[in-house]
Design a protein that fits this description.
Elements (H helix, E strand, L loop, with lengths): L1 H9 L18 H9 L4 E4 L5 H10 L5 E4 L5 H6 L7 E5 L6 H14 L6 H19 L5 H9 L4 E3 L2 E3 L12 E6 L2 E3 L2
Parallel strand pairs: 1-2, 2-3
Antiparallel strand pairs: 3-6, 4-5, 6-7
Helix pairs in contact: 6-7
Length: 188
């Protein structure tokens, strides 16, 4: 939250109120009333649990301005929310597309007898297993050797696109902003 506020202020934004909730909170009304008293045009709500309760209570208390949340909403949660999430903005990585994503979606549908939602999460697991197998083939099978082999990965053909690890071991994924419309994520 602090990083978001700092960046928002650098861009010229004004933070009128900051409040926190407990991780297992389910009744957000008192917090929402505090926030609404500052008459915000936009609310950034990086809620991590009980998302449906928060957004329903926010709507019930009459907030109709712009809403931004973290990347915790999924298509399954959107379907539960009726209109609670309508118009909410969220940054996240886009569901993968392409041949490998189509293959994974087929495998998922065959196994679970339904289309996958948020294929990106399944893709990460799928890619993770394949990356470890790749690294095992290219290492001396020690812990350090496996780590070093992973750090050497360049343009590995992953479900979400080519994977290249930085020297710190991370992979920079492209992020997008989505808006919830009719229970679906769309690019605004």
């Amino acid at each position: 939250m602090q990083g978001f506020e700092e960046h928002f202020k650098k861009l010229g934004g004004v933070v009128s109120k900051t409040v926190s909730t407990l991780p297992d909170e389910s009744d957000f009304r008192s917090v929402i009333v505090q926030v609404l008293a500052s008459k915000p045009e936009v609310i950034y709500a990086p809620i991590t649990s009980n998302l449906l309760a928060f957004f329903r209570q926010l709507r019930q208390l009459g907030f109709n301005g712009s809403l931004i949340t973290s990347d915790n909403l999924t298509e399954d949660i959107l379907l539960q929310g009726n209109k609670a999430f309508e118009g909410v903005y969220q940054t996240m990585v886009a569901d993968p597309s392409g041949e490998k994503a189509a293959q994974l979606a087929k495998l998922y549908e065959k196994k679970f007898l339904r289309k996958p939602t948020m294929l990106v999460f399944h893709g990460w697991g799928y890619d993770g297993v394949h990356l470890i197998a790749h690294a095992l083939k290219n290492s001396d099978l020690t812990r350090r050797g496996l780590r070093d082999a992973l750090l050497k990965v360049r343009n590995f053909p992953g479900v979400g696109g080519a994977i290249t690890f930085s020297s710190e071991g991370s992979w920079r994924m492209p992020l997008k902003v989505f808006k919830v419309e009719n229970h679906k994520f769309v690019e605004p």
